[in-house]
Amino acid sequence: MNTIKYMYTLYSLLLLLASCSDEDTTGYTVPEQIPATLTIQPDIEYQKVQGFGVMETSWQQTALTEEEMNTLFGTGADQLGCNILRIRIAPKDKNQTADSRWGTVARVAKVAKDLGTTILATPWTPPVSLKTIDNIVDGELADYAGYAEYLKEFLTYMKQQGAAVDVVSIQNEPDFEVTYESCRWTGLQQAKFFKQYGASIKAAHPDVKLMTGESFQYRHESTDPILEDEQACAVIDVVGGHIYGGGNTPYDLAKAKGKEYWMTEHLLNEAWEKKAPYLLIGDVRAETLQLAAEINTAMASGFNAYIYWYGRRYYGMLGDGLANSTMSAITPRGYMYAQFAKNLTGKTRVKVVASKNVSASVDCTAYKDSQGNLTLMFVNRTSSDIKGLNLALPFIPAEVKMTVSTVPTESFPETNKGMLVESAISSLENGLDIKAYSIVTVNIKR
């Protein structure tokens, strides 16, 4: 397309803005005669995407192998491009050695660090000697000063092993009653801890960022008291939380305070029975697309990072040998996740405006890199291809590439053919085609 024709088309498309939504995710139905259009506005910026990750597995399974770590955190072909590893801080009492409690996870984390990965460390419970009850389940923190020293001890040990932690949380799901390792914290108790001892942790480990306790449902009452306390807010860097049953929404107070907020754990496994042999009982393709849409929504909600549960699990990114999965093999969810991890990490989300005839089940977010190149992420959960989706761009592209991950109906296909297909687009004159049941990335070079 020559420049004059392109600019005329662009001008015509911009005239459609009066009928466009102000939302950053797409979804509408209007008469066919109006062209389906996305208008990208890169001058309107939102959050920087720090990355995507998974949870380390040695708590309830064998530890991730070096080969599996390379698959999860490498950036080459048949690698997923993750860049955040979440690890558990196992409770260690004074009569236990650091090597016996933390040695395994340190070895895995060192492999991750060597691959350039960010390490997030989360405790499920403090040692019982620091709690109000003599049990790793439930109770509250009794010895605040002792807990600060304990976290420093862990951070020092990890650094000595060549597996330095980048971000440390003070508690997994402090607002949820469970029957496994846990400890209850109110928002005010968290604020008290950070206010009194956050600075001492930072003084001992200035390169480590402090994260709030990670609410199971990103309930703001768990973290608002920290953000509203001037001293506590000053020492934290990241608000963490999970989205079990809710919470995948913008956190305006965190943004107002200049804090990143990360989604640090979630999983979807309703398509399988919950006990061995974990038979498939639901629509696994629909659930994988649901997960993709959830990640896209997290980005549209302003989250800076998204971390899935176990990296190796039949409902995770690599198979674990259960539910007919193949041990260590990339799952369809893994290929889907790679679309986000490889294409969005390090970029800034920008505004995208959708005309009202973009289907309700096709989600889209837009991003730019430091050179102004654009990336569009689409999730099409419908059974229909989207044809001729026009783009209103602020520049004439020098190059356009599309990567398509079509989600199969099988849990674990015998071949990965079609799971991740790249192609060059020679012209946008006829718009984009978005395949049914797919996750699509479009990279647009200036």
TrEMBL record:
GO biological process, one term: sphingolipid metabolic process
GO molecular function: glucosylceramidase activity
Record keyword Hydrolase present: yes
Cellular component GO terms, alphabetical: membrane
Pfam families the record matches: Glyco_hydro_30
Ranges for domain Glycosyl hydrolase family 30 TIM-barrel: 106-256
Homology family: Belongs to the glycosyl hydrolase 30 family.
PANTHER family reported in the protein's UniProt record: GLUCOSYLCERAMIDASE, GLUCURONOXYLANASE XYNC
Entry protein name: Glycosyl hydrolase family 30 TIM-barrel domain-containing protein
Species name: Bacteroides ovatus
